[in-house]
Amino acid sequence: MYHKHSQGFEDDLITRLMKHPTSEIQGSLRAYQFSARLAITNLRHKLVDFFSAIPEAHTSAFDNPFQHFGLIIEFSGEASLEVFDDAFHLNPTMKTLISTFGAVSVRNIRLRHPRDEDYQKNIFPQLVFHVDRGAQFDNQYSLFYRNPDDPDHQPPRDTSTLILPNIATFLKAREQGTSFASAALSHQLFDERNITNVIGEYMLEQKWDAPRGTGEICMFDNRTVMHASYHREQRGYPIAVQYLY
User: Fold this and answer.
1) What's the distance, CA 151 to chain centroid?
2) What is the separation of C-alpha 72 from the centre of its chain, rounded to a whole number of angstroms?
3) What's the pLDDT score for residue 134?
4) Range 206-233 burial, b when 16+ CB lie within 10 A, else e
5) Tens-digit pLDDT profile for residues 6-36
6) Cα torsion angle, 216, 117, 7, 204, sign
7) Taking Cα atoms as reference points, which of 33, 225, 231, 242 lies closest to residue 131?
8) Cα 118 to chain center, whole Å?
């Protein structure tokens, strides 16, 4: 029976990142050394710039929980870790990182959990933004995993994952004259002609492009973001998915 506790990053990582948002931070988890950086800084300013014609982007009711968006962590060597427990509860410090930065990407990681058969494998249509878990589900955290033990996951993946904060979904829907209620469930908000202009500005891209045999994870809360597949070159392999509490 699997009884090991899940493992998370040190409590001061957020403080250090907030104090130095444009810097790469060095740290350790157990004996594993890592670097951490923010993918998108000053998210609100970027949204106001991109959606300057939308009145809601300038109001005091501007609903954006993220000062910065997307945390990228890379271990210097492969880290073998438990990030959720045997009841599929995500580590509390991971939840705090997700609530602060919207999505967390970790490269060079191997997940230690004996129930690999519980992973689903998913891949979605091009640029259809959606949520994995509706409000009726308690397990609202999605964990995507490029599993180094899976032969299909050995090469880098052609399909990347795009992650969009809900406030950007709302503003983009307003820009396109679409109701937010319909866009919030599943909607093709972008096409290939304009998607590259916003990646790295207010949209995070998880590329799954680490070298062959490298494990990678990406975690987010379905209550605060939407995500979509982006088939950059050709349709890649399905990624492993676990839904967590």
Assistant:
1) 23
2) 9
3) 86
4) bbbbbeeebbbbbbbbbebbbbbbbbbe
5) 666 877 899 999 999 999 999 999 889 999 9
6) positive
7) 225
8) 20
